[in-house]
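Quick one: structure for this chain?
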Amino acid sequence: MSRKEPMARAEDYSRAIAAMESARRVLVTSHLRPDGDAVGSMAAICEVLQNKGKEVCPLLLSPLPAWYRFLFNVSIPVLGSDIPANALDAEPYAACDLAVVIDTNSHAQLPQIGKWLRKSGIRVVVIDHHITSDHIGDVEVVDTTASAAGIICYHLIKRAGWAITPKMASALFIALGSDTGWFRFSSVDSQTFSVAKALVEFGAKPAKLYRQLYENFSLPRMKLLSRLMQNLKLEMAERLAVVVVMNKDFEEVSAARSDTENLIDEFQRLETVEAVIMLVEQENGVWRCSLRSKGLVDVQKIAAAHGGGGHRAAAGVTMQMPLEKALETLKKDIRMQLAEA
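Got it. Here's what it folds into:
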């Protein structure tokens, strides 16, 4: 579908721009386990606000994967590890008069800080492209047809007439590239390429950015991928790929939990596979479940049924139950959709 304008309403863009223009100190955050869309969009919004003379307080809810660190000039604190949750009631966060939440509109994706946002009464601007919505924002710029939150950030910045620097263009290009599988997912449309073209004209260098993100694996991350390949199981006439990552897998190859990002996509390379389940062990019987589909299975529908969210082809959910039960629950839903398809 071709379109010149995003589907978020013009008045929502105007209200978000007005809120950001009038703010003095802005907290900028995103969801747990931030991906390239989240951190790329965060980096661009932080820079544009700083260039407008605002005091900006970026905050992460999970550690930043090493390959995204170059996007920020300073180390971004992580809530719960670098600073305790009660630090939100003190400087500098208590003095923020606006919060910008990017790439999520879900309370489940904003533990601790979501409660603080509700309690503090701070005005919230949400920039998001997911179907799942808890309507967290006082102002919400949401376009569920956008292939990345970075696209919405780009349109917001352009509508405001704010300057786009080469560094901002690079951050937004990473947002687009990472959330579209480097422009190969079905969510890619003419708008995606139109914005990508503009970002290149503003100074983004796709080949350099690709090398920084995808040709820069640490040895532990490569060993983890090898371990996942060994753990692979094919079911449902090889239409479903299942991968389980245990705590010991991280320990034995000295990998970080963030090293799992995008590794699930490797299993979609198998020609028979229509859907992928990857379960990553957490603490206290909790499993982080990532789901992927080539199109026949709507994994967003499955994730949403169990308290998660995402998109038709890529979604996730956290489940607190024994491994066997979590697997059977997800497999039952996938089996039903494959049978219908």
